[in-house]
Amino acid sequence: MKRRLFSRHPTNPILTPDDWPYPVNAVFNPAVTVHEGDTVLLVRVEDRSGISHLTVARSADGYGDWKIDPRPTFLADGSDAEVWGVEDPRITVIDGRFHITYTGFSAAGPLVCLAVTDDFREFERRGVIMPPEDKDAALFPVRFDGRYALIHRPVTAYPGMQAHIWLSWSPDLHHWGDYQVLLPARRGAWWDAGKVGLGPPPLPTAHGWLLCYHGVKQTAAGALYRAGLAMLDLEDPRRVIGRSRDWVLGPEAPYERSGDVPDVVFPTGWVVEEDGDTVRMYYGAADTCVAVATASLGELVEHVFATCVCGGPHTDYRCEDVAGGLFGPSSSRL
Predict the structure, then answer these.
(1) Where are the domains of the chain?
(2) What is the pLDDT of residues 65-88, one digit of tens each?
(3) Which of the residues 33, 55, 270, 290 could staple to 200 if both were Cys, CB 3.0 to 4.6 A apart?
(4) 133 cis-preceded (ω within 30 degrees of 0)
């Protein structure tokens, strides 16, 4: 039997509500970056009122001995956009500054907000960048022809419609346009049928931008959240050049199968270690705790093309017919 791509850390879950310095209900879906030599997690914390905020946890090795801020680091600002809290951040470093995309929970539904920081103590709020209903957003760390690019997941309230991953563009991180579907949800029995959403921010590799995304399958027992992989063209991220057929991380461990929302793995951040190949991916488990799993970056890239939906494998790390296989062997369209 082939070794699994992701290996769960033996001390998982690495952060639980019991670790928090003040009373909370759940800690999950963290953004991650490296700052002053430490791994920094910006953790979604749901307090006992049901409202979420964000709190920083720091670790020298990214696995243990976490130093958690003694009080909430980033609270909702009281605006209409964040009336019911802030959730599910992602961190992207652009021009040396930490750009945090996060979900604001407004009375009109979830929306995408942006904040910028240099030290995770002082934050410059940039406000709403995508209106309801939208979430699962992250920026690319570079500009393309002078424009910023944002991956996000709008949702329609129209019955029976799917939720796809979209790509949008901006000259200034404020005005957005040129919207397009980037990665559609599949249909039928697929593991990612019905709804997909971005996990961690896109990761640059020699062969393209590596994406980890979550897919949701509705079962008789409820929704099942798992994670899969895709690849975008390095120069033109509008082009999907690879997408794996199968999921690569799903709920198996007890802390992933049981919690506030059972059967959920929800990746939201990853970092590459100094060896250039080891990827640490952080994820929320059952909407209750934080876990981490490691993988080889080279093996992740190979897996995308070896199991490409068009029927692969591809030895040249590029697929020119991903669209033809997005919805399975019948190649049916939306």
Answers:
(1) 11-319
(2) 999 999 999 999 999 999 999 999
(3) 270
(4) yes
Q: What is the mean pLDDT of the chain?
A: 92
- Could you report the per-residue pLDDT of 240-275, keeping only the tens digit for each? 999 999 999 999 999 999 999 999 999 999 999 999
Q: Is the pLDDT of residue 117 over 50?
A: yes
Where do we find the tokens 């059967």?
263
CB 62 within 8 A of CB 40: no
> How far apart, in Å, are the Cα atoms of 39 and each of 17, 25, 206, 316?
19, 24, 24, 34
CB contact at 8 A, 212 and 199: yes
Residue in the block written with tokens 């799993």: 293
First to last CA, the chain: 36
Q: Encoding tokens for residue 308? A: 């490409």
Classify strands 38-46 and 26-35 as parallel, antiparallel or unpaired: antiparallel
Dihedral sign for Cα 246, 242, 297, 38, please. negative
Q: How confident is the model at residue 194 (pLDDT cuts 50, 70, 90)?
A: confident
Q: Answer whether 17's CB lies under 8 Å from 52's CB.
A: no
Its CATH class, for the domain covering 11-319, is mainly beta
Report d(CA 247, CA 295) in Å as an integer.
14
How much is the pLDDT for 232?
97
Non-local (6+) Cβ contacts of 191 within 8 A are 215, 217, 224, 226, 228, 246, 247, 250
Half-sphere exposure of 34 (CA within 13 A, CB side): 10
80: DSSP letter: G
Under the banding of pLDDT at 50, 70 and 90, the label for residue 329 is: very low
CB-CB contact of 148 with 209 (8 Å)? no
Burial status of residue 217 (CB atoms within 10 A of its CB: 0-12, 13-18, 19 or more): buried
The more confident residue out of 80 and 326 is 80
pTM of model > 0.90: yes
* Mode of pairing for the β-strands spanning 109-117 and 97-106: antiparallel
| Cα separation, 50 vs 327, whole angstroms | 37
